[in-house]
Specification:
By secondary structure, this protein is α+β, with helices and mostly antiparallel strands. It contains 7 helices and 36 strands. Keywords: Disulfide bond, EGF-like domain, Glycoprotein, Lectin, Membrane, Phosphoprotein, Receptor, Repeat, Signal, Transmembrane, Transmembrane helix.
Length: 605
């Protein structure tokens, strides 16, 4: 009881104090989620909007035909008792702001509702009396016209927002409504709304309103104060402190307003009392007056959702489920049977998920190949494939045990050289023992002739350099070492002494030369596999001396010619200085014409 009184006091103190605008409120009507009020007072558009907002509302909208009908009913309700009042205009919350342009192809012609947010879609309902003024620079506002017995009645027209009109509509939105109270005997119910309206004619009363019951006969159940509260989600009702049979009297019984009952009123003449009852399929509410459809879903017979009907109930299942054979229990739907995914589908209770094979990534329900080569998983070359990748190695390498690394191939194990072989990274090199040269095929070895043989051949003016058409082997009178027997090829172990090369002349002075004194051996060349071979021998030291003599002689001859030219130039300059300068005359620029043949041509002679 204490809690109830505290709630009642709190609700009364929370009611807004009626303002001047509320005192000028002429009529009101409420729908399921909003109340509309009519104000008969000359105001500009901005002044009317401020008045509505001061009570927690805004200028009324008419975004649909149903909402426009609420405003029309409000006008009819007010003017029914006041015929022949002439023409009236009432502001509604529709305006064309500055810098917004008239648009003929739009239903609202570029106008917008004052309560509309930017993200809301524009309503397609309109009721223009005539086309609005075409403008982009002025503020234009819309009013609803009341012209009784005219086809233009309730139509819209625009005008200057600063010009006052006869009145305006306000709109107040609420979460829900309570039904009006029905008295069981003579009396009156006054409703006080949160926006300052006091009315005795409301059919729907907004949430948070207070009702005051006054009975005609003193002593009867009256003088009650009730608040419209929310009982459950979406359900609103009065907090009845008693049975709800207000102003009930044995004098009237069920004769007055059906005893205040919504459906059936049952009298007991023996006790001179009566009570309310409901029809089949309905049950009496907690106020013992109203009736509601019987809730067949209590207790809930369904595994998930239950929808109540007058004749029974119906079970509902959420998305991803379907009713079983008993129509009560919901079972999971296996969406994967319809193959909604590109590769893999995993069913789950009420849903499913798409997955991809290894090497792919999911993009919605589709799978896209992953380019693994972007992460450089291979030591050398990488080729991306659908869902995977392949590593490869360059020539001279082979794949390691992990299929991604590359290890060097020891080509010398296959004995590709005629004599010595050294393995390198990705390749190999062939070498020859001292006293031999690598042939042009970079594999075979050619013996080097002795120094005496070279000298004797030079005396006979026979060059040891290879000719263009005769092989080196034929010129030297030697045969290449055959490579038919793989045992002839010897691999050069790592870290051992390198074979004789042209870059290390001292290496040719060691022992082991086949029958040739080491001090008389020319340079021995070695070339790596694939880079060519030594195709000719150098000339002896005598040939080098001859070349030096020819070079010095040529330089001396050039210097001698330069000295002679310089002397001649100096002699000419000295001679020019000794000759005297002859005076110049005007005749120096002319020449004499000989007599005879030239003179005959002159007509003046």
């Amino acid at each position: 009881m204490v809690i109830f009184l505290w709630q009642l006091v709190y609700q009364i103190l929370s009611l807004p104090v009626p303002t001047v605008a509320a005192a000028k409120m002429e009529e009101a009507v409420c729908s399921q989620r909003a109340c509309y009020t009519l104000h008969l007072d000359y105001r500009s558009f901005i002044e009317a909007q401020e008045e509505c907002r001061s009570n927690g509302g805004d200028l009324a909208t008419a975004k649909s035909l149903d909402e426009a009908s609420e405003l029309r009913n409000l006008l009819l309700k007010f003017f029914t008792s006041k015929p022949d009042q002439g023409a009236f205009k009432f502001w509604i919350g529709l305006e064309l702001k500055k810098m917004r342009c008239y648009q003929r192809d739009r239903a609202l012609r570029g106008f917008s509702w004052v309560s509309t947010r930017e993200q809301d879609e524009e309503s397609d309902f309109s009721d223009w009396m005539q086309e609005p003024q075409i403008t982009c620079t002025t503020h234009r506002c819309v009013a609803m016209n009341y012209l009784m017995s005219s086809p233009k009645n309730f139509k819209w027209s625009d005008g200057k927002c600063s010009t006052p009109v006869n009145g305006y509509f306000c709109k107040f939105s609420f979460q829900g409504m309570c039904h009006k109270l029905v008295l069981a005997g003579p009396g009156i119910v006054t409703y006080s709304t949160p926006f300052g309206l006091e009315s005795v004619t409301l059919d729907l009363v907004p949430f948070g309103s207070m009702a005051t019951v006054s009975c005609e006969t003193p002593g009867e159940l009256g003088g009650q104060f009730l608040i419209c509260n929310m009982k459950e989600a979406g359900i609103f009702d009065w907090n009845h402190p008693g049975s709800g049979l207000y102003c009930a009297s044995p004098k009237y019984g069920c004769l007055y307003n059906n005893g205040g009952c919504e459906q059936e009123c049952i009298e007991d003449h023996s006790t001179k009392t009566f009570h309310c009852d409901c029809k089949e399929g309905y049950e009496l509410g907690s106020n013992l007056v109203s009736c509601a459809p019987k809730d067949h879903c209590k207790p809930n017979p369904c595994s998930h959702g239950c929808t109540n009907h007058q004749e029974g109930f119906e079970c509902k299942c959420p998305l991803g489920y379907m009713l079983g054979e008993d129509r009560l229990v919901c079972r999971d739907v296996n969406e994967c049977l319809e193959r909604p995914c590109e590769q893999l589908c995993t069913n789950s209770p009420g849903s499913f998920s798409c997955n991809c094979f290894r090497g792919f990534q999911a993009v919605g329900r589709e799978c896209q190949d992953i380019d693994e080569c972007e992460k450089k998983p291979c030591a050398q070359s990488c080729l991306n494939t659908a869902g995977s990748f392949v590593c490869s190695c360059r020539e001279g390498y082979k794949k390691g045990s992990d299929a991604s690394s590359c290890v060097d191939v020891d080509e010398c194990e296959a004995k590709p050289c005629a004599d010595l072989c050294r393995n390198t990274k990705g390749s190999y090199e062939c070498f020859c023992e001292q006293g031999f040269l690598l042939a042009s095929n970079s594999i075979s070895c050619v013996p080097i002739p002795s120094f005496q043989t070279v000298a004797s051949q030079e005396e006979k003016s026979v060059t040891l350099e290879p000719s263009e058409h005769v092989p080196l082997e034929a010129q030297a009178g030697a045969k290449s070492v055959p490579n038919n027997d793989p045992e002839n090829t010897r691999s050069l172990p790592p870290g051992s002494m390198s074979p004789v090369s042209s870059s290390d002349p001292s290496a040719s002075t060691g022992a082991g030369t086949r029958g040739v004194p080491s001090t008389l051996l020319p340079d021995v060349g070695s070339r790596s596999h694939g880079t060519g071979s030594v195709d000719h021998m150098k000339a002896g030291t005598d040939k080098g001396h001859h070349m030096l003599f020819y070079s010095v002689s040529s330089v001396a001859a050039v210097l001698l010619v330069l000295a002679f030219a310089l002397g001649l130039l100096m002699w000419k300059r000295r001679r020019a200085k000794k000759e005297p300068n002859q005076p110049r005359s005007a005749a120096d620029n002319y020449c004499w014409v000989p007599d005879g043949e030239k003179a005959a041509d002159n007509e003046y002679r």
